[in-house]
Amino acid sequence: xxxxxxxxxxLGLGTTAGCFVGGYDAQYAEAIxxxxxxxxFAVLRPEAAVVExxxxxxxxxxxASLSDQPAADAGQPAEKPDPSRLRPPFLRDLPDYQQTFExxxxxxxxxxxxxxxxxxxxxxxxRQAIEGAILQAARADxxxxxxxxxxxxxxxxxxxxxxxxxxxxxxxxxxxxxxxxAGSEAYQRHPGLCELWLSADPDRERQLLLVWRYPESxxxxxxxxxxxxxxxxxxxxxxxxxxxxxxxxxxxxxxxxENQPDPEE
Length: 265
Hints:
Blueprint: H1 5-38, E1 49-52, E2 55-57, E3 64-65, H2 83-86, E4 97-107, E5 110-122, H3 127-140, E6 152-155, E7 165-181, E8 184-199, E9 206-215, H4 226-235, E10 238-239
Antiparallel strand pairs: 1-2, 2-10, 3-4, 4-5, 5-7, 5-9, 6-7, 7-8, 8-9
């Protein structure tokens, strides 16, 4: 039985079109997957910030280090931030503090801070002891008198080789924040939340403590809920071995010293 030529041609075109459609569907599915994987990080800055050598993370858009405050007048030394602004009052004496990043939001004419303070703690200090010291300090702070704080396990999917296991402590209550109204600074109590993320992966030389603080009035102004921001930033953390000496992303490697003698001479 002979098959008409037009039928063969039609079958061939149908097969070819199916290949094109199948290839397009695969590319479309890959594009959707890539978008879904990258979408949560759209609220973060594309470049990683260096907390200290070997420790990096990506910050939310608009955050800047309080260690890099510009001078009020040209030619003058850079302004030093008030120590009370850098750390939550109940963690003022916790050692191994590194630096604080902050963004300010205006609510009804008053500026409020949304901050992230970071500690890099040697792994030689038992995590249980760190958790206990923080918990004791929180319970002694009048800001959290009406709460019953407790550490909880939290697992994430890191994208930069950082910790996957974390311990999280959430504290809410009327906390002291630095506010600015009509150019005047003041420290006042406002309902707010403090969320602490302590890395809990074993076999790392350093433990990272991320402490987020913000007044409740700031939360509605954020692109996504603060808890999601904290989790997303934790996924970008990189912790390299202490003394690794690896340059930070975008940094030039150290230059080789000149006029070194040949080791074989």
